[in-house]
Design goal:
This protein has about 210 residues and is α/β, with parallel strands linked by helices. The chain has one domain (about 20-210): 3-Layer(aba) Sandwich (Rossmann fold), CATH 3.40.50.300. The chain is built from 6 helices and 7 strands, in the order αββαββαβαβαβα. A 7-stranded mixed sheet has the order 1-3-4-2-5-6-7, sandwiched between helices. The radius of gyration is 16 Å and the shape is globular.
Length: about 210
């Protein structure tokens, strides 16, 4: 049995452009539309239910342990956090949804901010939607997919924590999700992902790079 407090080193990356990801830096946290960086260039947003592993995925993809703050407390990300990839290229960590224990007034503010960001942000090229492989396609996930479909925004789903299931069970979960997406959100794509083992990291990086560049 693994001790949860043990530090588990990331396996080495096999990508040749690792410096591209390691150069990403935090820019600012945004709590209002007038605080957003200029709406130019290209950016990719990360969204998902609280505790889906969003911050861990960002850290794994950028090969940086502390770029996005990881917490066991659901709803820790409470701002739109912008990260600079290079000039006019950003990653954006959106507030998690579903479990956040916050006042209704703050929840409504987040909802309006996210709605306007997703619908009005010209620089936004795609959304990475993270779902815990054990609890995929919740009602809130579907609502977010509906918003993206209305704008015709590209979506790529990471089924996170794939290491929690056997290989066969994980593959079955992915196949089931792909069938559901094809029926209702035919433009969305999906893959398995594990921040712990690095499974799916190159596939996810390729999608990010395509959107950013």
């Amino acid at each position: 049995m693994r001790n949860p407090s043990d530090i588990i080193p990331f396996p080495p990356s096999t990508t040749v452009d690792i410096d591209y990801w390691r150069s990403i830096r935090f820019l600012r946290g945004v709590n209002a539309l007038n605080q957003l960086p200029p709406d130019t260039g290209r950016e990719v947003a990360f969204a998902g239910r609280s505790n889906a592993g969003k911050s861990s995925a960002i850290n794994r993809l950028t090969d940086q342990r502390g770029l996005a703050r990881v917490s066991k407390t659901p709803g820790r990300t409470q701002l739109l956090n912008f990260f600079v990839v290079k000039p006019e290229r950003h990653l954006v960590d959106l507030p998690g949804y579903g479990y956040a224990r916050v006042p209704d007034s703050i929840r409504r503010h987040w909802g309006e901010l996210l709605k306007r960001y997703l619908h009005e942000r010209v620089a936004l090229q795609g959304l990475v939607l993270l779902m815990d492989i054990r609890h995929p396609l919740t009602e809130t996930d579907r609502q977010l997919l509906d918003s993206c479909a209305a704008r015709e925004l590209a979506v790529h789903v990471l089924l996170t924590k794939a290491d929690k299931l056997s290989r066969g069970a994980a593959s079955a979960a992915l196949a089931q999700l792909k069938r559901a997406l094809a029926a209702t959100y035919p433009g969305a794509t999906a893959q398995l992902f594990s921040a712990l083992t690095g499974q799916g990291i190159n596939e996810a990086r390729t999608r990010l790079h395509d959107w950013l560049e």
